[in-house]
Structure formats: C-alpha cells, structure tokens
Design goal:
Layout: H1 4-15, H2 22-25, H3 27-30, H4 32-39, H5 46-52, H6 55-64, H7 77-92, H8 104-122, H9 127-131, H10 134-148, H11 166-175, H12 200-203, E1 210-215, E2 222-227, E3 230-232, H13 245-251, H14 253-257, H15 261-266
Bound molecules: 2-acetamido-2-deoxy-beta-D-glucopyranose.
Residues 36-37, 41, 43-44 line the site of 2-acetamido-2-deoxy-beta-D-glucopyranose.
Pfam families: His_Phos_2
Keywords: Hydrolase, Signal
GO molecular function: acid phosphatase activity; inositol phosphate phosphatase activity
Length: 278
C-alpha cells in the first residue's frame, strides 16, 4: 500500500512528466545539411579564423602577454585567459586575477570573436542553421495553437517547458528572424559593428531562456515574446508588445506552411506520401 507521501510523490511525478527528446531538442545533430555544410566544413567559420589572426586580436595578444617577440604567437592562450576571467566572474562573482590582463577594449575584441563564432556556427551566417530548427519551431506553434483554442478544458497544460542549450536556442531565435543586423559581422568590419544587435553574451548568457506567453484577450489570443525575461518584439510586428496571435502566425506563414526538415536538411522533395524512413 502506498503511503500518503508515496502517493504524493507519485502524483508529482505524474504532474511533471518529462522525457528526453533529442529529435526535438538536438535537431542540429540530425540535420545533414548543417553537419556537412557547417559543422564539418572547414571553410564555414573562415571569418572566425581570419579574425583570430587579424590585427585586432594580434594587438590584444601583444598587450596581454606583453609579447615583444613576434616569433611567439600563442593564439589560444589569450582566449583561455579570457575564459578563466569570465568564468570566475560569472560563476563565483570573483574579480579574477586573469581579468587584469585585459582592459575594456580588449574585452570588446574578445567578445566580438565569440559573437563571430556563434553567428557563423549557429545563427544567420548560414541559413541552414536556423532551418535545422524547423521541427522545434513547428512544435512551439502546435503547442500554442492547442493552448489558444477556445473552451479548452481545465486539464490542458498551462505550460510547456523545454530545456536545452544555447546550441538549440540560437538556431530557433535565428529562424524567428531575431538579432539579424543589416551587415553581417566579418573578420574585417569589427570597427563598424559596435552597434550590432547580435551579441551572444546578451542573447545566450548562462540560463538563457525564451518564453512565449499566450494571453486570452478580447479580440483573440495575443502572444508575447520574452528573451532572458525581457520583452522582445517580433520582427515585422514591432508596433506591439503582444500582437494578436493570428498576426504572428500570418508573419510566419511561410515557415508554418513550409520549413520542412527533410527537405531543408536532406534535400529531399516532400509531399509524396508519408516518410517511412527511420
Ligand atoms: C562550406 O562553407 C562554404 C562557406 O560558407 C560554402 O561556400 C560551401 O558551400 C560549404 N561546403 C559544403 C560542402 O557545404
């Protein structure tokens, strides 16, 4: 016989059913177009490599390592020191001695290097990165569709929670058209990129989160987007904090009707009967 606490535990387990779904959350691993076109492609991150060996990084290295001799170029040492500095600062709130190696301008250069990497590896740099998240995109909108149905029963899920990493979040944010600056960041345009919106340190910091909130309103459901707890407006619907859900759907119509994982990732035609492949 179950004790009350046992029963309670059981109920909680039932209430908080969870499962691991890598198909949904680690879509990029299964997307051949992404794996071959970006992850395994040695030229996909060319801008990052160029910047790492460019004049801005070179200057940071020279200053940080007090390096007068041009014969020694420890390319990754400076980055390692910067990571130690930022980890100790963000995890332990410690002003780490490693940070003394850098001034603010150095930090900006190193921040740009990280942004370049995220941009070209997981974001707008390659369209396939965003497209690989099509299954997750569709999942989100299916969930919202269900939640927004009128006269929904009281037992319907009040919330759906998905947990993943930045590598899952960035492609989805890119697919939604967020943080897309007019000029892509490259190895050569550091000096004109100070005002960029693509700042990975702000978009995917520790505990990054993306929230879709559906409101039951008079003219129909409204949808608000929050990124790291701050309201963000949908591209193309910038006049409203929480536009009508149907307007959001209309904005993403092309993705709701298309954005097929098999076609985008495998280059296969679609609409020829069910896909029975494993
Ligand atoms: C590798 O990346 C480069 C630069 O983005 C691209 O032009 C090329 O088509 C990619 N190669 C493959 C095999 O996808």
């Amino acid at each position: 016989m179950l004790s009350l606490w046992g029963l309670l535990g059981l109920c909680l387990d039932l209430l908080y059913l969870h499962q691991v779904d890598d198909q949904l959350m680690r879509f990029f691993e299964r997307c051949r177009g992404y794996v071959e076109g970006v992850e395994k492609n040695r030229t996909a991150l060319l801008e990052v490599e160029k910047f790492k060996h460019g004049k801005e990084m070179e200057a940071v290295r020279r200053r940080a390592l007090n390096e007068d001799c041009p014969c020694v170029r420890p390319v990754d040492l400076v980055e390692a020191a910067f990571f130690l500095c930022s980890y100790e600062l963000s995890i332990k709130s410690l002003h780490s001695p490693w940070c003394f190696l850098f001034d603010e301008d150095d930090a900006k250069v190193l921040e740009y290097k990280s942004d370049l990497k995220q941009y070209w590896k997981r974001s707008h740099g390659h369209v396939i990165s965003g497209l690989s998240s099509c299954p997750l995109f569709h999942h989100v909108f299916r969930t919202l569709d269900k939640a927004g149905r009128p006269r929904r029963s009281v037992t319907s899920h009040p919330a759906s929670i998905l947990v993943g990493h930045a590598e899952t979040l960035l492609p989805l944010l890119s697919l939604l058209g967020l943080y897309k600056d007019q000029t892509p960041p490259t190895a050569d345009n550091y000096r004109t990129q100070h005002g960029r919106s693509f700042r990975s340190g702000l978009i995917v910091p520790y505990a990054a989160n993306l929230l879709f909130v559906l409101y039951d309103c008079q003219r129909g459901p409204r949808l608000q987007l929050l990124i790291n707890e701050s309201p963000v407006r949908f591209p193309g619907l910038e006049t409203e904090d929480a536009p009508l859900y149907r307007d959001v759907r209309a904005t993403y119509r092309h993705l709701l009707d298309g954005c097929d994982f098999e076609r985008e990732c495998e280059g296969r035609p679609v609409g020829r009967g069910p896909n029975t492949e494993l």
